[in-house]
């Protein structure tokens, strides 16, 4: 009964079903993250969880459904070349854009100024995006090659649960973890220019 209801939900109402699923996913991931950070519920930030849930319902659920549904139509099949093309799109377009939208979206929901939002994005985007290469290429290769289209958002969301815990943690911290600080130092932009000394 429950299984047949879920099938109807994801086949007939994929956008609504996946929006609800992603809302639950981001809510639970942030809950776990905050419990790991703070321990006691007395320190729990419910507004932070609300912001994550908002991103899940209005962005991750519907947008992921739209992208993966149309990706299957544009690149049908599960052959090696097709999977490789999908991986390139997913990692270099969709993951890149979604990382930006996550930081910008949450910052705007926090009512931060545009200057504060850009500063945080400039600091955290490249380290976060670099870290995504350790998770998503392998996960998506399995996703595109094996998982049925109707369940791909659910599959990737399950893996994404742990990724979102990391995103929630990074968004809440002013300082990056050590390994991501190394990436930041290697990739950060600088306006400093070498001094040119003129000699007579």
> Largest beta sheet, briefly?
none
Intertermini distance: 89 Å
Please estimate the helix content: over 70%
Q: Helix and strand succession? A: HHHHHHHH
Q: What proportion strand?
A: under 5%
Number of helical runs? 8
Number of domains: 1
Using DSSP, what is the number of strands? 0
Helix and strand content put the structural class at mainly alpha
General shape: globular
> What is the CA-atom radius of gyration, in angstroms?
20 Å
Tell me, rounded to a whole number, the average pLDDT: 85
Poorly predicted regions are 190-196
Sequence-ordered SSE layout with sheet pairings:
Layout: H1 2-12, H2 14-38, H3 46-74, H4 80-109, H5 114-132, H6 136-145, H7 152-172, H8 178-187
Helix pairs in contact: 1-2, 2-3, 2-7, 3-4, 4-5, 4-6, 5-8, 6-7
Could you provide a short overview of the structure?
This protein is mainly α and 200 residues long. It has helices at 2-12, 14-38, 46-74, 80-109, 114-132, 136-145, 152-172, 178-187.
Description:
By secondary structure, the chain is an all-alpha fold. The chain has one domain (8-173). The protein is built from eight helices and no strands. α2 (14-38) packs across α3, α2 packs parallel to α7 (152-172) and α4 packs antiparallel against α5 (114-132). The chain is globular and about 45 Å long. The protein starts with a helix and ends in a 13-residue tail after the last helix. The relative contact order is 0.13.
């Amino acid at each position: 009964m429950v299984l047949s209801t879920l099938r109807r939900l994801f086949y007939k109402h994929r956008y609504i079903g996946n929006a609800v699923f992603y809302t639950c996913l981001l809510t639970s991931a942030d809950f776990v993250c905050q419990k790991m950070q703070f321990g006691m519920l007395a320190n729990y930030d419910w507004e932070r969880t609300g912001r994550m849930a908002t991103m899940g319902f209005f962005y991750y659920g519907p947008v992921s459904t739209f992208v993966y549904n149309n990706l299957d139509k544009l690149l049908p099949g599960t052959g090696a070349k097709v999977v490789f093309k999908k991986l390139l799109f997913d990692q270099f377009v969709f993951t890149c854009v979604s990382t930006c939208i996550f930081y910008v979206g949450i910052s705007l929901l926090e009512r931060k100024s545009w200057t504060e939002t850009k500063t945080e994005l400039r600091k955290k985007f490249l380290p976060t995006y670099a870290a995504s290469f350790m998770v998503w290429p392998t996960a998506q290769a399995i996703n595109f090659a094996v998982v049925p289209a109707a369940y791909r958002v659910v599959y990737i969301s399950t893996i994404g649960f742990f990724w979102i815990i990391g995103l929630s943690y990074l968004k809440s911290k002013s300082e990056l973890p050590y390994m991501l600080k190394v990436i930041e130092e290697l990739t950060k932009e600088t306006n400093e220019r070498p001094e040119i000394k003129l000699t007579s």
